[in-house]
Specification:
The complex is a heterodimer of chains A (112) and B (420). Chain A has 112 residues and is mainly α. Chain A is 62% helix and 0% strand. Chain B is α/β, with parallel strands linked by helices and 420 residues long. Chain B starts with a helix and ends with a helix. Classes of the chains: A mainly alpha (112), B alpha/beta (420). Chain B: Pfam families: FCSD-flav_bind, FCSD_central, Pyr_redox_2.
Chain lengths: 112, 420
């Protein structure tokens, strides 16, 4: 149901990506944060992230370990919608469903 | 249970980690042997050891005590990285992850006895074997060249001393001399690698030897990121670089290392530096294990297990898997899928659906970085590309500079992911 909701959201937002509907985005983020998070699944999914996102800050890739869950969910939703643009992250985020985003946010927000 | 001295020592070294770990299937700890300590093997060893918390006994067989990455070696050639920044050792994998690191060559696999023979004598038993041996060069691929000629004509396509040799030769070139590269046919390690190397050689020569020429002899019709490289070469290096393709007979190329000449379809050229990157195949141990079909080792896309033996997994350049390029990033990605599958087979840990990804950054000139990448998923037939992207021609310098900075962050992250 949430997946269908996001597809509709994408259809509504993408043609005018410069001005995303903030209320819809906020509702989407809240829906994902309300999902039960599978942290073990998050740890598995996170292994895709750690090829680039290290625990140090060398170079131009931000550290994401320890970021608040709401920030991570917001960033991934924005990448999926194209409201935030980056080729690698949009490609990665496109194949993440709500369950995956919730699991990743739970894992990284608890990671050192 | 067969144990040799090394295996006993390994068990003792890992003992602290094993104590308190859950007993697995009521047996002694299952044994995983990983051959090759690069992007595939080091990552697989680290993830299996870490995720099992010592419940799996992991042995990593890697001949070199200090590993110099092939990725980023072109930046050393370009004078943008020092060699030590590309070197990594295995101390953390041994001390923090309890991995039994054996510095020796794996020279044979007995698939019935499930043991790996070592060049130094003895053998190591396994329940699951991970082979990540990288590439070897095909004999006779470039007539006139073999490994005995690699000092006169370096390949510099495995990190370390060959890379240092090639940079030294570029710096020592006579004024106005010619650097030639014999590029490899598909498939080969790091598709944009030869062309990033050309970029870095051109960068050095434009500073220290601006009348020098660069000649690429290439058996392929086209190559990775071609439009991006050609645009960048025109922009940064003027008319320094010439490429001869198959339309001018580049597939009929031989070399004479003693005379320092290249014969391109009958036309003989004298050159000052000759970088020969021959055609490639899976590292020798994969062939010795009897799991190859032609040049490469076919694997099951869902878990990187060999199609010839369910107790062997093949990672990285040596694997024939489908759409993923032979890159360090790909090997690192495949290693995590493999580690999850191996742990699922040996312990009661959860197995998750495979997901793969890759990004290849290349540097055209200082601060002018480009990238190509994709996500992948397993199908019955192969690992198939699902979504992809590539840098665009005509991008602003700020975009290119940010892309280069990303690549620096990636190098730090992936090497930490490999070596701890």
């Amino acid at each position: 149901m949430i997946r269908r909701g996001l597809a509709a959201l994408a259809a509504a937002v993408l043609p005018a990506a410069a001005a995303p509907d903030h209320e819809l985005v906020h509702n989407e983020i809240a829906d994902i944060l309300a999902l039960p998070a599978d942290t073990a699944y998050g740890a598995w999914l996170a292994s895709e992230c750690t090829s680039c996102h290290g625990v140090g800050t060398e170079g131009g890739i931000p550290q994401i370990h320890g970021l608040p869950a709401g920030y991570i969910v917001g960033a991934l939703v924005d990448y999926r919608l194209g409201a935030r643009q980056h080729e690698v992250m949009q490609t990665i985020a496109t194949r993440l469903g709500e369950e995956e985003i919730a699991a990743l946010a739970a894992y990284f927000s608890e990671a050192d | 249970m067969r144990l040799n001295r090394r295996a006993v020592l390994g068990s003792l070294a890992a003992g602290a980690a094993v104590l308190g770990a859950p007993m697995v299937m009521g047996q002694a700890a299952p044994r995983v042997v990983v051959v090759g300590g690069g992007a595939g093997g080091a990552t697989a060893a680290r993830y299996i050891a870490r995720e099992s918390s010592g419940a799996v006994n992991v042995t990593l067989i890697e001949p070199t005590r200090r590993y110099y990455t092939c990725f980023f070696s072109n930046l050393y050639i370009g004078g943008l990285r020092d060699m030590e920044s590309l070197g990594h050792d295995y101390g953390t994998l041994a001390s923090e992850y309890g991995i039994n690191v054996v510095h020796d060559w794996a020279v044979g696999v007995d698939r019935d006895a499930r043991t790996v023979a070592l060049a130094g004598g003895g053998s190591v038993p396994y329940d699951k074997l991970v082979l990540s041996p990288g590439i070897d060069f095909k004999e006779g691929a470039v007539p006139g060249w073999d490994l005995s000629a690699q000092n006169a004509m370096p390949h510099a396509y495995k990190g370390g001393s060959q890379t240092e040799l090639l940079r030294a030769q570029v710096l020592a070139m006579r004024e106005g001399g010619t650097y030639a590269m014999v590029a490899p046919p598909n498939p080969y390690r790091c598709p944009p690698g030869p062309y990033e190397r050309i970029s870095m050689v051109a960068h050095v020569l434009s500073e220290v030897n601006p009348t020098a020429k660069i000649l690429i002899v290439d058996p392929k019709d086209g190559y990775s990121k071609q439009a991006l490289f050609e645009e960048g070469w025109q922009k940064h290096y003027g008319g320094m670089i010439e490429r001869i393709g198959p339309d001018f007979g580049a597939q009929n190329t031989s070399v004479d290392p003693a005379a320092m000449t290249i014969d391109i379809d009958g036309a003989v050229e004298s050159v000052d530096v000759c970088n020969v990157i021959p055609a490639q195949r899976a590292g020798k141990i994969a062939h010795d294990a009897g799991i190859t079909d032609g040049d490469w080792a076919p694997v099951n896309p869902a878990d990187m297990s060999s199609r010839a033996d369910p107790d062997i997994y093949v990672l990285g350049d040596a694997a024939q898997q489908g759409d993923m390029p032979k890159s360090g990033y790909s090997a690192n990605s495949q290693a995590k899928v493999c580690a999850n599958a191996v742990l699922g087979a040996l312990t009661d840990s959860r197995v998750f659906p495979a997901r793969y990804s890759n990004t290849c950054w290349s540097l055209i000139a200082p601060e002018d970085g480009v990238k190509v990448g994709a996500t992948y998923e397993p199908t019955e037939e192969k690992i198939a590309s699902t979504e992809s992207f590539i840098s665009q021609t005509g991008e602003e310098p700020e975009v290119r500079a940010a892309t280069y900075q990303e690549s620096i962050g990636w190098y730090a992250a992936i090497t930490a992911d490999m070596f701890g």
